[in-house]
Amino acid sequence: MSQTDESVPHVVILGAGVIGLSTAHVLSEKYPSYKFTVVARDLPEDVDLNSQAWASPWAGANWSPIGGYEEKKYKRELITFNKLWDMISSGLIRTLPSRICYAEPVNDAKFWYKDIVRDFRILDEEEVPSGAVAGVAFTTVSLNPQLYLLWLRNELNARGVIFLRKRLYSIQEAAEIAGPQGVVINATALGARSLIGVEDTAVYPIRGQTILAYAPGVQEFLAHPLGLSSVPTGEATYMIPRPAPHGHVLLGGTFQEDNWNLSVDFDTARDIWRRCLQLAPALNDPETRILGHNVGLRPARRGGARIEAQWYSLPLESEFLPPPAEGAEKYDFLVIHAYGFGAAGYQGSWGAAEEVAEIFAEHFKLVA
């Protein structure tokens, strides 16, 4: 069946971040005869433009434990970890020896992730850095988000997925692109807060400021856990070596909830460098140099990520939209929401995409 055939179901993925592109990848693989269009203001090739208006290019993009155990999150992150582990031979993903340090005593409840990562163990006392009282070690994975997003785009291009650069203001505009028999996947991240028809006020940013460094002497992920060690001050200390380019390491950082500021704060940058240097003396290597400073807004949601179907009656009636044309017929239209992953977008991406695919198949009674 040709994708130009009007009878082919049209799936519009709204948003070209890691969740949107991963979902497009999974769905286009399962249903290759369907028509797929990714619609977004920012596209993967924009990473060289230094746009901070979307989060995916600036993410840490490794797998690390965030928060406590949640059944759905565990399933998503297990699927994603295994997928990324299987991709190591591609060169896009690297294995990463890791240590996470805790400023308070720990118990088994904190280690809900020990069956996801590889080589998990409790650190011996002499292995725990100064300033921490306990720690764990394991092997995880990391990637370079800017290279990874371009890989996803190239994969989708090869499958005939259409990319449309367009800023949309309402869910109805996306539905109009899909057509009455289509479906929209809403992966707009922070945009879900201001997308007419969604307007999810539970969505909020977590500001992250980082330093990109050339530091070939740093070859392990070192961290105090995000959101746990320094919440009152918004600090989050971590170092993430990347698979490429050689020697690139992301140094962080901040974890500042409800902070929309995209400007680099150089007092914060100095503090990041100081904290990372205390945790990893290898940064003192004479080869080390700073390559740049980044700020990104992690797209979080109070109550957790939203992955669910919602039927809309279109055309929308909203004070912010022109009134429907006289005599316009109402029709029901399916939107599947997938947003609000906060700091865990990359590490839950493939699992989230599979979850969307399950909802998609259930509503259309499909067998892949």
UniProtKB/TrEMBL annotation:
Protein name: FAD dependent oxidoreductase domain-containing protein
Record-listed D-dopa binding positions: 238, 298
Pfam families assigned to the protein according to its UniProt record, in alphabetical order: DAO (PF01266)
GO cellular component: cytoplasm
Keywords linked to the UniProt accession: FAD, Flavoprotein, Oxidoreductase
InterPro entries (alphabetical): D-amino_acid_oxidase_CS, DAO, FAD-dep_OxRdtase
Species for this entry: Phanerochaete carnosa (strain HHB-10118-sp) (White-rot fungus)
Domain FAD dependent oxidoreductase, first and last residues per copy: 10-358
